[in-house]
Amino acid sequence: MSDTATVPTRRRARFHSLTVSQVRxxxxxxxxxxxxxxxxxxNDYSYDPGQYIAIRTDLDGENLRRSYSxxxxxxxGQLKVAIKRDLGGLFSTWAIDNLRAGMQLDVxxxxxxxxxxxxxxxxxxxxxxxxxxxxxxxLALIESTLSASPLNRFSLVYSNRTSMETMFVDELxxxxxxxxxxxxxxxxxxxxxxSSELLSGRLDEAKFRDILRxxxxxxxxxxxxxxxxxxxxxxxxxxxxxxGIDTNAIRYELFxxxxxxxxxxxxxxxxxxxxxxxxxxxxxxxxxxxxTVTSPVHSNESILNAAxxxxxxxxxxxxxxxxxxxxxxxxxxxxxxxxxxxLEPEELARGYVLTCQxxxxxxxxxxxxxx
Length: 371
Prior knowledge:
- This protein has about 375 residues and is an alpha/beta fold.
- The chain has helices at about 90-100, 135-150, 170-180, 205-215, 230-240, 305-310, 345-350, and strands at about 1-5, 15-25, 30-35, 50-60, 60-70, 80-85, 105-110, 120, 125-130, 155-160, 185-190, 220-225, 250-255, 280-285, 290-295, 325-330, 335, 350-355, 360, 365-370.
């Protein structure tokens, strides 16, 4: 019925300066940003539906990196992302208030594994559960999946507070018009009453089970895509597992963990090494060259933070254990990886760690970003 894709060779994320060709308002607090991709960078910015880019800029003396999912199926010469205003978000607030066509930003080449693992499918049914800005990668997945075969189907459960705050509502309606039989849309509004009680109120476990019982036949689904806040994604994962759904058929993406009780990664934290104090010696390989840095034992400094002190192009995007851009293989020594929302079990078995979350636990540690 379907073939499973092999995992492609991972390319190293790199930044290039790209020009903004269009900025379009989606809601009062969200914009769509289109970047022009010059012909000479076409290969660098080729992507699979569901992947993301990171944007790098300096604001108020702070070097910021923010990750945004690409919200369209691949189109030659451009890519689009959506930026939603975060409460207290420095970059998102600046972008929504100031970003204009003609401006340039440093944009990382596409990354991410929130992609379909099905190479070919006949009459396959896909389902996504998204909340808020979690719709952005799902848009690309819907468009690419339905255009691939007239027999494919896609069901989307999309949760927002109100209809006015729903991103890409017109684009979803256009897709529904284009694929009236293949696409099923279920808008769940938490602060606005809908005609259907099933689609009104918070998307909790009981409501999700009701949706699966009445609207979506779970055993018929070949792939699931979950994107949104940590609690919602985890709720859906646990519910699907309880229903006996194969975890290998479930893809999920988090923009942040939304867990204030969990430690975040480090990037750019100042650390000073004083003479005579105990240190970890960290060696890392990147782009075929090797560098070494020492880190005070008492500092509990991450490998990423230490590496950035001696080489500014070490790859990372979120620094929160979510995106996986900073992954590397441990080739010597041991580390304590505090959090992991990005690496798969097979990657862990091969020795990969997230360097933004990894604290050395041995005197000497070596990692290889090129692996």
